[in-house]
Protein 1
Amino acid sequence: MSDLNANFKKAQQAFTAIKSKTVAEKAAFLEAMAVQIENIKSELIPTASKESNLPDGRITGELGRTLGQIRLFANLVKEGSWVEATIDHADPDRSPAPKPDIRRMLRPLGPVVVFGASNFPLAFSTAGGDTVSALAAGCPVIYKAHPAHPATSKLVAGAIRDAAQKSGMPEDIFQHLEGGISVGQEMAKHPMAKAIAFTGSYTGGKALFDTAAAREEPIPVYAEMGSVNPIFAFESKLSQHLDALATAYVGSLTLGVGQFCTNPGLIFVPESKADAFSKAVAEKIAAVSAAPMLHDGIAKTYKDRIATLKEKDKLSWVHAATASELTHGSPALARVTAADWISDDAFQEEVFGPFGILVSYKNTSQLVQIADSLKGQLTCTLWAEDDELAENVEFLALIEEKCGRLLFKGAPTGVEVGFAMQHGGPFPSTSDSRSTSVGVYAIKRFARPVAFQDMPERFLPEELKESNPLDIWRTVDGVLKK
Ligand code: NAP
């Protein structure tokens, strides 16, 4: 605890120092961060690839995404409207009482604790979305390295601290800590921590959420946990595109050895098409080779979870990998009727890896029952013709309540980093469905609104000064303007 005290004190000092930096200086730090990480790519790519078992090509793509994400936040900081600057001018002549001048904007929370993910050693890790959105908000980050890629994490941490030093920011704007669950728990309990961001298992995320809620000062926890991302296929759509949709499903299910939070672990198919669709899927799955998983722990959990499901009488196996194949992340697919699926919550639990359950449903009213039983998801996907959507408006309304992103084309794997993306759904997929961990709105998690009433102009933050020196979009007396 004493070392952690020193870490948090340094973070708090960095927080104070950052507050006096200009918007341009804060953006320059993020830009320098991208440059410094790019500068080490010849060492970073093979290191990350070796530690994660992910091919160089995938890591190269992930690096591009990570750098793009950092630069997106740098531009967001420069553009400035994310702070929601809002001004209500005073009216001293108002009766019966004069109206005060009130100016409101989002301000950074303070030191943020970030737990990186194992499945994206770059884009959801040390310099990933949680870290960069917290830094962009003006919060220092104390980062708990994921033990699955320690060397990758250290390399990136060094680049972030170099960027801070080169751009005149305090180096302790970012600190990198290693250790197991007990260190993570102590970080979450520390009184100077103001928020937690996490990507990983339901068990880990919920434990951190409970720890934060039990603190003397509870703090927000943004935990992205498990999701099975159901696809709902409708009859007419399947009749017309059965083979293409089977290809799309298998591609999404097995991408990255199934180790994506948006992996479609459930697919609902009408009874009339279930045999034909499962046959097409089985043929395509058989052609996919097994590949090593991210780390031994994930491979073991994958194997154990499938072994447990194999004991369930209600499941039949469309493609059943052997125990030794499963150690290497071999894909598997099981099948169950909708009535049996509804009766057992175990069929909704995430199996992290290339495993799916095909559920055959009878009709529209059974679809509504399925939607009623479904737990919160990051995504839901509908493969339907327009007239099928029109015939299922009740189902459509219900399914919207169950997810953060609703797709009408393609597959849920592949998360765009942009302005409109929502990556966060109702519990248990995340601990706070009002937030996203991908895209620019991720920044809002690490800021809180402050209103300044009748504050003398010279003390106001730049964003709220009368002359609008940063030239940002603001809401002035109810009107959005520059
Ligand atoms: P994890 O076990 O949840 O670990 C993630 C991070 O949280 C690690 O740094 C871990 O520390 C820490 N942690 C775990 N439990 C904790 C606790 N009770 N208190 C404090 N810190 C805790 O996730 P993982 O190792 O990346 O993968 C394991 C499983 O997570 C997978 O099999 C999969 O089910 C799921 N997963 C889901 C997603 C998703 O996006 N939904 C992504 C990746 C993984 P230590 O490792 O040092 O103990």
Protein 2
Amino acid sequence: MNITMIGTGYVGLVTGACLSEFGHQVICMDKDSGKIERLLAGEIPIYEPGLNELVKKNVRENHLSFSTDLAQSVKSAKAVFIAVGTPSQRRGGGYADLTYVYGAAKELAPHLTDYTVVIDKSTVPVGTARQVARVIKETNPEADFDVVSNPEFLREGAAISDFMRPDRVVFGCDSEKASEVLKEIYNPLYLTSTPFVKTSLETAELIKYASNAFLAVKVSFINEMATICEAVDANVVELSKGVGLDGRIGGKFLHPGPGYGGSCFPKDTLALLRIAQEHGTAARIVEAAVEVNAAQKARMVKKIRDALGGSETGRTIGILGLTFKPETDDMRDAPALTILPALAEKGARLKVHDPQGMTEAKKMLPDYEYGESPYDVCEDADAVVLMTEWNQYRALDLERIRSTMKTPLFIDLRNVYTPDKMKKAGFTYIGVGRN
Ligand code: UDX
């Protein structure tokens, strides 16, 4: 099937590449000509494991191409995905900014020739799909189309495997005809009996927010339990195992840390709060998760400050990891963006390293010393803080680190190491949720 993807960000590029891998003829379109030029030159603008190979293979096999020409891209398509950004509005308050979504709808409308399915892939507030349909109808009353809501559940760093082996495909639509097109698009998944959840437009849009919000609640829950564990001298790693083995709860997303970040949880939780408020109701549990998440980052600053004897002023701190999670270069809403400035503000000297995120991080945190390796940032440090659990940090040469530090203080915000092992290696070790 001829498919056009509008938007070549994390979602659009991964979805376009994977659909071309399914054998569809995909054009990934973006207004940003610089981005399209880089893609045409074979450069992938984001770090996502496996994406580079997948794109190159499908470009080579002529299943995947890139264009800035929306009109041309839409004319030949039977399905047009809208995968543009829906950032939080600049005026704050957590409202999702739908400018790009409605802009795409308005621009594509005049070029719809035969029956076309317009598919909302972006994470959008409830009611957006119907509004997209109105925009298209007003712009081109002759257009023969249906709008479908088809939210994605891709995790950065695992996006391709999440697409190829999803737990479910969710789509909301009003017409059987559109539903048939969606089944044809996702046919390879249909054949492998991936569960398809067909529902209304509103329900599909809300499933996305509900999924992310629930995962965020789980993270804030275990972070809160970690705080209680520290207070009663319990061990949150063992607690998480004991709780997570309950089949009704599950052990995933029960690992404490410096708080959740990324381009989704922070944005989607706030957007869900707004959706509830705008419809005269509330999402109090999600609201609490948002508050706990903000408090968790502040707790990490205090944890580091206390470990340094009450003040970080004039102290050197080595930071391992900047991105909001491993296997990505994405710095959006990373806890480091809150924690590090709070330390620097009090006069700490920060030496930082990240396997993939330093290029992005330098745009937002230009004043810190960027190390070439994790060992660079540990030299002369009064403390080392493990912020992001990259594999590169899981088997560090502890003797080498300890011998170059000013004081052997290791603050592990992801509980990667075990207290006994670190004590034997001569460190004062501090984790999250276990004393
Ligand atoms: C998330 C959802 O998982 C995905 O389904 C959705 O499509 C997009 O948002 P992503 O934001 O890429 O994916 O990251 P995810 O792996 O979910 O982690 C989100 C945040 O939670 C990260 O900051 C991570 O460090 C944190 N986290 C996750 C924890 O602190 N503890 C955990 O146990 C799991």
